[in-house]
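User: Hey, quick favor. My workstation is busy. Could you predict this chain's structure for me?
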Amino acid sequence: MSSGARSRLAQSEEARLLGVRGDAGADDLGHNASPRGEEIEDGLDAETNARSRERQSSSGKLSILEEAEERLVTFIELLVMNSFVGAYGLIQVSMFMLVLPKQCATLFPGSQAVGLASLLGLAGSTQLICPVAGLFSDRMSSPFGRRRPFIVVGTVVSLLSLAVLWYVSHHLGEDETALEAAETGEVSSDLAAARNLYVIAFVMLNLSLNVCFAAYAGLIPDLVGESQIGQASGTMAVMNAVGSLVGVWMVGFLKVEPFTMYAVWLIVCCAVTLLIVSETPRARPTDSIACRDIFNVYFESLETNPDFKWVWVSRLLYYMGISVQVFMQYFIRDIIGVSADEAKQETAMVSIIMLVCAAIVAVPCGSFSDRVGRKSLVYLSCILMALVYLGWSFAFQLWHIFAFSALFGVANGTYLSVDYALGCDKIPDRDEGAAQALGVWGVAAFLGSTLGPVISGPLLYFLGSTSDPDVYSHTGYVALLAVGAFFVLLSTLALRNVS
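Assistant: No problem, here it is.
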């Protein structure tokens, strides 16, 4: 029986009991009215409590919410709940900005920009699994809880994928044939096999990481009361920034082997979560999930609320615009004229400047948006971002790139300070469908980060090709940055449709 049917049955039964007992009370209305009324009230209270206990034992949901409201979560517990956010930021930022661009030069000789764009496109598409994984996690009735089974399985698959990536990357680094292919642009059979294995492991890594992310995201609404949601959200932002900075620093400056470092972080995050975080499992499974339920996860929120739809479109376009930064390592290498290793290190410095500047402005801008509104700050950030792209187009020295990177961080931090708040403001059903709606809201960033490189990568390849297949011209980068500016400005036009 569906939850709606059970609810209607309970309501009709309660109405019947009210009618029967009300008639009985009317017969004794004279000298016995007050005691009879007390009996009716006591009976209804007992029945309501019994029904509440029944619902609680069947789903476990009420006990989870009541426990969250009854106790305050410590700061250490919040750090543990958000530990994976730090690992996720560490892996995503350092891999996309530093590791992939360098390895694509070997994996895709002569077409590294297209290869990088393809890998980033695959990574973005895997993030579509988040709403589905969250749906299945919500319905999980394991004795170990709803989230921890997904965390464990996702971590194990991630570790196996990292082992394969480590093997392939070291094999390529020691294989003279692969190194010669990177110089000549020819693809041998061994290189093709290694590339296929790398791509498969890369896709599996991102799928499993996103399953973990969906499960970790469910811990906060499960275990944190409404009075601490803001604190939990702030902790999440801090963990993401710290993880991203640590990853960039260790890979870009300390030259730590990335895949081993990623594995260590994932093991630690999984272990501390299992040891410290406790869940209340469901007593019985809920209704089965139909294909229609999975399909509705992606479209229901967009169809029922035009404002939410335009917020989603605006966010998609914004992330398409800022995704051009993944080509920064190539930009520094080709325009500044440094080696690949130097370009990797300078790109790490660019990332650190961006993250620090974004962290500085995020909290003040978020508070300011409560007084002036969200949209005005989005307009400001997008205009500033377009000016940054214009500045980068005429940057021929490193300090020029660093200066505009600081402005990029300010612009992106301003946007991020109101990004989540704007999404929450326009959720169609905040009481019943917040998690599902925010999952769809998150997909906009995933798709934007995917579609952006898919468009800009081939553009750089075709407009920036030179006699050296591994070097792109200034014209190609100007076109790349112009497309980025176009998308962020288009984001502001989409937001104008929001009331």
